[in-house]
């Protein structure tokens, strides 16, 4: 009955691995537990501020499974000539030049993303508008504000035919794009040195999308995950 069960529970020996008189260091096991869990999760979960939209990608581009990198597929086509890549549906959103957009467009606010260009030998990075002409097979797309590398030199380009050669001591390995819709500015920065590579000033009247162009099959353009940080105390 209940009384017998209660008496048995009260007298049951407590099975513990802690020796008699020893004190558990609770702070060591429990202290800052949330931080420890958060720190562990950093190595498991990655947050990328921009992901690619496969519906906009030229059929010759190869996107990674997590939609964070893109490269040309020329070598793949040559190596597998007897097994051609299946055709991709030609939809209005898809580019005829080797381009792909980010999946999210921006109308306001500050947005920032880093792209590892690595050893890619022909690329362009920047932003473009939702209404950009997507069916012109240009080598360097004409409807974007961006910087590009043609295998020899860096340059800045805009839809207004402005071409600006860029002279840098060394080609950056990573490009940071900083889009400020409220201030109407697009900045290109080398995050390794925090040096400004170029800046455009333009008032956009429609949504703006991250823009990627690659004509290199050996080294992809990779959107880098954000480095998380901890804020202590109240944020003013």
UniProtKB/TrEMBL annotation:
Residues 30-230 form the B30.2/SPRY domain. It comes from the Eukaryota. CDD domains: SPRY_PRY_TRIM35. Gene3D superfamilies: 2.60.120.920. It holds the Pfam family SPRY. InterPro entries: B30.2/SPRY (IPR001870), B30.2/SPRY_sf (IPR043136), Butyrophylin_SPRY (IPR003879), ConA-like_dom_sf (IPR013320), PRY (IPR006574), SPRY_dom (IPR003877), TRIM/RBCC (IPR050143). This is B30.2/SPRY domain-containing protein. It comes from Hemibagrus guttatus.
